[in-house]
């Protein structure tokens, strides 16, 4: 394991994430000094009572961005390796759409997002929606071997679920449609301390589970046959992939809305800069890379006084990266 | 040459005046003529009513910085007089109205003319039970299943007049395709509360209820102006509403709702901000300001028994707001009262509600605004 080659990158990313973490705590429409922020963080009081809530909100939002970006990066990486396609990701394969459908069924069905049962129902529905799409997709890959076709089917899932969501939308009342529209814009803001603990716990648990996929992923990079020859249980691997990526994508989608592009763009960019081919190195670095990109997006949103929706910022950052990947893929194909 | 030019000039002038139809050539007034009481416009800027000898001209128009538009419709008062065919005309014999806004219904209901409504945009969202049941009784149709006016539904309803917004629909096309007359109604663009209410006079003319409209406006105006008075609350500042997607859409300082609350003696926290559009503020800004603002006035759709505790449950930071600590949150539950439509007709009631809620009036039963307990 040549970790030392990637130590500079790891340090750089950690410094970047720490810098953005601090920036996210300090930047905002209400100007506070470092001292005031530190006083609040250490439990002290300041002149304006609302400031402790403002700092708390900034802190929760920053932590959410770190874990959401990391989770989407990891889910994207695993899917890209499994489907052997650099354009695979929770968004493109329809996993996010599946989660969105689950959320839509619950929200537009009238269950409030504010209540505990409502939130629990939404989480469960999101996970069911995401994993259902993945299971269906994995089933279809038994018959379809062309990676591009799989992507197109994933996109079709996305359109299909959007169609169903539109029908639900038309039947829902104005309060529910409003709640769904707000959720759909994406945001790292608004998680309560309970939500945040739940969110972090699930993401950490799934990321730990993804460590079980390191050996299979190292084998799958070369191909299914090679992985099988290494003694990797492909069926169990597939199940674990569905579980890890489905739940990761679903939990982020449920709490932060359907966030686009991070899941595709981060693994691609990170693969270019990471020297190691071992997923034990790649996986944590992709997590931190995802956190880094999500924080950049969130800082941008904050700098715009929250006027820019999160998905607009991630699209502005992610879409050019994906275009560049497609151009690169075309060049590679043209060489054959 | 000079003489020829002079003669040609005189001939042209003669020809020009010969084409003008002078009033003296018009039919004499008869017993069948309409007798319409005079209408005086005091506050509204978006419409004009011009009384001519043979007809009355209603003009709906833009003003200020609004996108320009102008529309006219005529009411012939002399039974013998014929308007040119290309002009839009009100026919009291057969009034079948289609409305693009449910706000129009409030004006029409006030004038007890709901039986003239055959189609409405947003029929399913009419809050007023009386209006809703009356419209359902007379089988009025929904014009907008989605956000847009469905032309087929409009054509099937075949109204004699379609009252519509000035923006978004090509009114000429509707007239060209099916001969349905349209008239632009833009009461929501008015710059004053009484100006918006004054549109009832236009509705009165459209519905042959001028006296009723004049009387209602006079009553509401008197009550409003009487209630509006100098108070000792000028230093008490207020913020408005709740956030939407982490953003607070604060009404502009010159908006109607801010004027109404200022008429109740309170000062707007964001009064220094210019412009006519809503001002966007982040959560952080409003949380920071909420600690200082004396009153918090909220118009929102919430469950029936929504209280202060429910409000704090939405965001715990609200507990730090001065208005919440002092129990000076004034709430209008738009799920319970028809603030957006009926409220337009009752600014005097809303003003009294605000005075009562801010402790400046006693013995009043609030309808729209009340103190959140």
Detail the topology: elements first, then pairings.
The complex is a heterodimer of chains A (336) and B (373).
Chain A lengths: L6 H20 L7 H8 L8 H33 L12 H13 L8 H25 L6 H25 L2 H11 L8 H18 L3 H7 L3 H6 L4 H23 L5 H12 L5 H25 L6 H26 L1
Chain B lengths: L1 H18 L27 E5 L3 E7 L8 E7 L20 E3 L2 H9 L6 E4 L8 H9 L3 E2 L8 H7 L3 E4 L6 H8 L2 E4 L8 H5 L1 H8 L3 H18 L9 E4 L2 E2 L2 E4 L5 H8 L3 E2 L10 E4 H8 L4 E6 L7 H7 L7 H4 L3 E5 L8 H4 L1 H11 L12 E2 L2
Parallel strand pairs in B: 4-5, 4-7, 5-6, 7-8, 9-12, 9-14, 14-15
Antiparallel strand pairs in B: 1-2, 2-3, 10-11, 11-13, 15-16
Helix pairs in contact in B: 7-8, 8-14
Query: Largest interface, counted with CB-CB under 8 A?
Result: A-B, 24 and 23 residues
Widest β-sheet, arrangement of strands of chain B: 6-5-4-7-8
H/E element order of chain A:
HHHHHHHHHHHHHH
If you average the pLDDT of chain A, what whole number results? 86
Q: Averaged pLDDT of chain B, please? A: 87
User: Distance between termini of chain B?
Assistant: 92 Å
